[in-house]
Design goal:
Keywords: Nucleus, Ribosome biogenesis, rRNA processing. Belongs to the UTP23/FCF1 family. UTP23 subfamily. This is rRNA-processing protein UTP23 homolog. The chain has a domain of 147 residues: 5'-nuclease (Rossmann fold, 3-Layer(aba) Sandwich), CATH 3.40.50.1010. It is rod-shaped. It contains eleven helices and six strands. The protein is α/β, with parallel strands linked by helices.
């Protein structure tokens, strides 16, 4: 069972690495529900999760999640202690903390640019995460951490990419910057403004001229025949004149 689970995780990680550029160390955002489930099932997150994902991982949380755990009192005191060991990432709710689920959703806006994994047991949050493309989801079943399969939204996004119908915004910007750096954008603009040059002479006009030359070429031949007939006639008259004189 463990080998099968590992192969399952490796295949999914390959999907995110190839299509969404996930790289080590993997950034894992954990909420209070995941920490509580790990504590209840005696799971060592720091020791077990990197081996399951197949690479180094950085574990992090937010101030909103810590505030939420603190407000829940003794029931989640153990989960709070676990979350406090992780790196605290800055969120946009410094003055007005929000719920842990709302905070995590705000951290993966605009296409998840930081390539976060979301680790949660909150089913409502998980459903909202699945509506976004390119966000791996982690949860715990009994005493086992599980990497959820890619969502239909992620699969559809990748299919569009493969059909060259969609380019991520960060890739579009990179292409524009690269073109400007290499001077390709200016060259493309000049090519569009460049007018089509006039071609060679019209083949039909050439044929017409050639036909005219042929007609002109026939005229000297006619004149030559006319002169020849005239010379024959003059010669015949001269012969007749000589014969007449001899007879006299």
């Amino acid at each position: 069972m463990k080998v099968t689970r590992q192969k399952h995780a490796k295949k999914i990680m390959g999907f995110y690495k190839h299509n969404f550029q996930f790289r080590e160390p993997f950034q894992v955002l954990l909420d209070g529900t995941f920490c509580q489930a790990a504590l209840r099932n005696k799971i060592q997150i720091r020791e077990q999760l990197p081996g399951y994902l197949g690479g180094a991982a950085q574990f992090c949380t937010t101030r909103c999640i810590l505030k939420e755990l603190e407000s829940l009192g003794k029931a989640l005191y153990g989960a709070k202690l676990i979350a406090q060991r992780f790196e605290v990432r800055n969120c946009s709710h410094h003055k007005d903390p929000v719920s842990g689920s709302a905070c995590l959703l705000s951290m993966i806006e605009e296409g998840n640019p930081h390539h976060f994994f979301i680790a949660t047991q909150d089913q409502d949050l998980a459903n909202k995460v699945k509506k976004k493309a390119g966000i791996p989801l982690l949860f715990i079943i009994q005493n086992t951490m599980v990497l959820d399969k890619p969502s239909p939204k992620s699969l559809a996004f990748v299919q569009k990419l493969q059909m060259n119908q969609l380019v991520p915004e960060h890739q579009k910007q990179s292409i524009v910057e690269l073109k400007e750096k290499e001077g390709l954008a200016k060259q493309e603009g000049e090519k569009r403004r460049k007018r089509k040059r006039a071609g060679g002479p019209n083949p039909l006009s050439c044929l017409k001229k050639k036909k005219k030359k042929t007609q002109e070429g026939q005229e000297p031949s006619a004149e030559k025949k006319k002169r020849k007939r005239k010379r024959i006639r003059v010669k015949a008259e001269a012969v007749q004149s000589v014969q007449k004189n001899e007879e006299e």
